[in-house]
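Suppose you are handed a protein chain with no further information: no name, no annotation, nothing but its sequence. What can you learn? This example shows the usual starting point.
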Amino acid sequence: MKVDLSDLNAFLAVAQAQGFREGARVSGMSPSGLSEAVRRLEEQLGVRLLHRTTRSVVPTEAGERLLERLSPALGEVEAALDVVNNFRDRPAGTLKLNVPVAAVRLVLPAIVSPFLAAYPDVRLEVIVEDGFVDVVASGCDAGIRYEETLEQDMIAVPIGPRVQRYATGAAPSYLKRHGRPQHPRDLLNHACLRGRFASGVTAPWEFMRDGEIIRVDPTGPLLVRIGAGADLVVAAALAGTGIITLFEDWLRPYFESGALEPVLEDWWQSFSGPFLYYPGRRLVPAPLRAFIDFIKR
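A reasonable first move is to predict its three-dimensional structure. Written in structure tokens, the prediction is:
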């Protein structure tokens, strides 16, 4: 039976993403194009591969069996085709990265343009998500995350600044009205602008000085999704709504302009910088290898 490889890739994208819309976002195809490809594949095989409802798309038992064998097989096909890339004068193809908002703002701007200038035949696609993502299942070649969220079977390469800090600040108008906190626990009596992870967890604010770690869980008038809502929190802090904690590099321009003032600076906590991570159990595609070599240089 001769089956179109693109139809198999379409089924894989939809099954892994558990939806046509999300599958389209990951694969770069349209939802209608994916739907037509899956319908065509089901007709050729003579069996339903996906259960479709208005709320979800999940593989049938036949679809699960096909998915188990298909995912590694198509991975091997991609790896085999990429071997040809090694015979080119320069790498070509698409490099798909999954990165958090902070990396898009603070890490990639200094890297992307020089990289694309050095490798003009590489197309870079950046998917912005703040939750931890299985890069293989999401159809990405690699991701950028911090050390505490990396899986052990991943290869990690340092990228961007190796030491970062969380900074706390507030607008002069806020501090004039409410006073300046002198200790992290004073934040419990202030309006704090908070972020919540996609998992629903609202992480405490953590401070450190002379080896002492203080964790506080203040409240405030604004709570946003971490990453996607960061610009709104910054805008609220600039307007004097409350106190903000965010990456120091993100807030530095506002400190330098005087729009925000540092708060509890002696307690700002340092942490290790981000890593580019990718699975080590398969051949590294040529565009990714070029990117790794570039950031190492």
